[in-house]
Amino acid sequence: MPIATPQQFRQMLDAAQQAGYAYPAINTTSIITLNAAMKGFAESNSDGIIQFSTGAGQFASGLANKDAAFGCIVLAEAAHRLAERYDVLIALNTDHCQPEKAEGFLKPLIEATAQRRVRGENNLFQNHMLDASILSLEDNMTISQEYLRLCAKHEIILEVEAGVVGGEEDGAAGTEDMPEDKLYTTPEDMLAVYEALHEIGRFTFAATFGNVHGHYKPGAVKLRPEILKDGQAAVIEKYGSTAEMDLVFHGGSGSLLEEIRETLDYGVIKMNVDTDTQYAFTRPIAGHMMENYDGVLKIDGEIGNKKIYDPRNYLKKAEENMAERVGVACSDLLSSGKSLFGNI
Q1: Residue-level pLDDT at 21
Q2: Residues β-bridged to residue 212
Q3: Of 47, 67, 95, 274, which is the active-site residue?
Q4: pLDDT tens digits for 316-331?
């Protein structure tokens, strides 16, 4: 199945909202991690979202280039070809992009989709994220309106964020001394976001409710999912049930399963998964190196073992383990077995 069309992606979001589940949004950086994500979705019979950060784009473009937009185009084009081999729907998204990077990152990517549409081809991306949460809410909505207009012109959904997700993830950083009230989106914030954007085009909203980027032991992150409930209630009370917002959960590592599941009741339809899949990818590589020390290294003048130090040997293990972790995310978010492939 090729990458989901804009219409199919909207139907994916509608289905998740109506049935109370969410899509794992798996950050990838390479062909190997693309395949791992798609394998994990397919084995779970779950549709899903694959996304690229600015850092992933720089990495994929090569050390000589470090061109985030170019690297993301390369990854996205590869994803379009690879997705043809999997019987689930996959949507492509970009992750955190700060306002100062948007001109050189989001605009080239939106233009790449525009060029594809002229040729009668599917959108390169179905979703982009503009993270202007560092700005005041008023300034955040001003630039979000600008980019939502650009996206809506090409049937792209824009993800926005207000409030601060603590910790750090690939350049998206809060601060260690962030005042507690900044970690929580208020009902007034939710209303302001809805009112600023809903007439322009479809968007998703990364509201903050104590979530923190990074890796933590289960229960270490103190979430307040009721923040999402109260915000949705404020919007629906004023604008009706059709105004329920599509919410995004960032910084899920360390969250308890019951907290993750609770957010689904309040409109979360996408949860970013990065830290946990990074570890799942790296762990079998570390094990391979430690277990085969004398094979991966040429010790004391010996020649090592080519079959052991061939990168394909340990990267296959990494792909398999990451795919399994993607399956866990599908189970946690209740998307397993719910693929719309063949039905829309």
Answers
A1: 98
A2: 166
A3: 95
A4: 999 999 999 999 999 9
User: Cβ contacts of residue 263 below 8 Å, gap of 6+?
Assistant: 22, 209, 223, 225, 228, 247, 249, 271
Distance CA(334)–CA(324), nearest Å, equals: 15
Instruction: Give the CA angle between residues 33, 38, 39 to the nearest 5°.
Output: 95
- DSSP annotation of 155 reads T
For residue 49, give the DSSP letter: E
User: How confident is the model over 156-189, as pLDDT tens digits?
Assistant: 999 999 976 544 455 554 444 445 556 689 999 9
Contact status, residue 174 vs residue 133, Cβ threshold 8 Å: no
Cite the DSSP H helix spans in the chain.
Answer: 6-19, 31-43, 54-61, 68-82, 99-118, 137-152, 187-197, 226-239, 257-265, 275-291, 293-296, 306-309, 311-332
Does residue 95 have an active-site annotation?
yes
Residues 203 and 156: their CA atoms lie apart, in Å, by 9
pLDDT of residue 167: 47
Q: β-strand 168-169 against 247-249: which pairing, if any?
A: unpaired
pTM flag (> 0.70):
yes
∠ Cα 25 28 33 (to 5°): 115
